Amino acid sequence: MRETRQTRAGSRRRTRTVTGIVVLASLLLAACSGEQNALDPAGPFAQGPHDLIVPVAIIAAVVFVLVQGLIIYSVIRFRTRKDDDGSLPVQVHGNTRLEIVWTVIPAVILAVIAVPTVQGIFEQMDDPGGDDVLAVEVIGHRWWFEYYYPDYDIYTANEMAIPTDTPVRLEMTAADLARSPEQGVVHSFWIPRLAGKQDLVPGQTTFLNMQADEPGRYLGQCAEYCGLSHVNMRARVEAMEPADFDTWVEQQSTPAEVPEDGTLEADGRELYNDLDGRQACASCHQVWEDEGDARAAGQGPDLTHLLSREEFAGAIHDMTEENLRDWLEDPNSMKPMQYEVNGIGMPDLDLSEEELDALVAYLLTLDPES
Ligand SMILES: [Cu+2]
């Protein structure tokens, strides 16, 4: 009786172990597929690390099989046998020749790998040169990425537009205390199919080169734990044909249109600038309306052409009317672990239904295509 129960418990445990392994393996394999696959490079600066990872992984696999094979062979070949007389096997401790061999071989392998590795690090960071390099400043905030195009004086967030076949030089830093309280942590920018991975450090500038061969969407995310909402800090790169990129630049360089007086949208714009005692949207965001005004960075993303982006709030929500309304109504549940927990991010401004209607109507006018 007891035995049966034990056998059953044992087989249940085995089933659980097998299920666990299957789940773990599929999760690991899932990480290898789709749009964030460093083993599927889509440009020269991602190709470099890829071409290093593959041979290194092969060498590691050969070493692994060799070492494990020798261990398994030794365990079986030299196991204790029934007729064992208890004497010690031949001791190899102090065998100078063996020790030199197993020190020199790994040292040589590492030295050989170090050459293309160091070279690759410089390729990722050095100015690629040439006239057509596009500069983009990347600023890491808790918890969203801001992009500034110094050549065009364009601010945008979460989604970076780039032309194909053009080296893009990222100059990166993290927002510091001067810009907004309680920023000042390290982030890491990583678009696996387009470039290597690089830290964003407050008060310092780091560099990373990126290039896309084909138009398309390339996903990535912050790869350095940066606080409670770190998991909600995603990034997107939209690579487009150079002609489409020129159109994008033109759109982004055109001020937002001011809605006509007397409309719901105009009411929304008024609320945006003055929320009657509550902190105005305009104190953290910019909507650039007049060519004569300077464009400037705010505490939150630039909203001038909000609708030119497909996602918002760290690229975790689709840019739909419903989502925007939910965002204004309750940003803390749309992006957990931000403002209500630590005062960083977008606050809940206690908006009434009427205020929400007007504000959302206004946000929907911030569309360069309309
Ligand atoms: Cu981050």
Brief write-up:
This protein is of the alpha+beta class. The chain has helices at 2-30, 44-77, 96-125, 242-252, 264-273, 321-329, 331-334, 339-342, 353-363, and strands spanning 134-141, 144-149, 154-157, 159-163, 168-174, 187-190, 197-200, 206-210, 216-222, 234-240, 311-312, 317-318. It folds into two domains: 12-125, Helix Hairpins (Orthogonal Bundle); 134-370, Cupredoxins -  blue copper proteins (Immunoglobulin-like).
Provide tags for this entry:
370 residues, Immunoglobulin-like, 2 domains, 5-stranded mixed beta sheet, 38% helix, binds copper (II) ion
Note the quaternary state here. single chain
Portion in helices: 25-40%
Q: Write out the distinct hetero groups bound to the structure.
A: copper (II) ion
Write the H/E string, N to C.
Answer: HHHEEEEEEEEEEHHEEHHHH
Q: How much of the residues is beta strand, in percent?
A: 15-25%
Lateral strand order in the biggest sheet: 3-2-1-5-8
Say which CATH homologous superfamily of the largest domain is assigned. Cupredoxins -  blue copper proteins
CATH architecture of the largest domain: Sandwich
- Alpha plus pi helix count: 9
Specify Rg, calculated over alpha carbons: 28 Å
CATH topology of the largest domain: Immunoglobulin-like
- Let me know the number of strands: 12
Q: Describe the sheet with the most strands.
A: 5 strands, mixed
N- to C-terminal separation?
77 Å
What is the total domain count?
2
Low-confidence stretches: none
Structural class: alpha+beta
CATH class of the largest domain: Mainly Beta
Average pLDDT reading: 90
| Form type | elongated
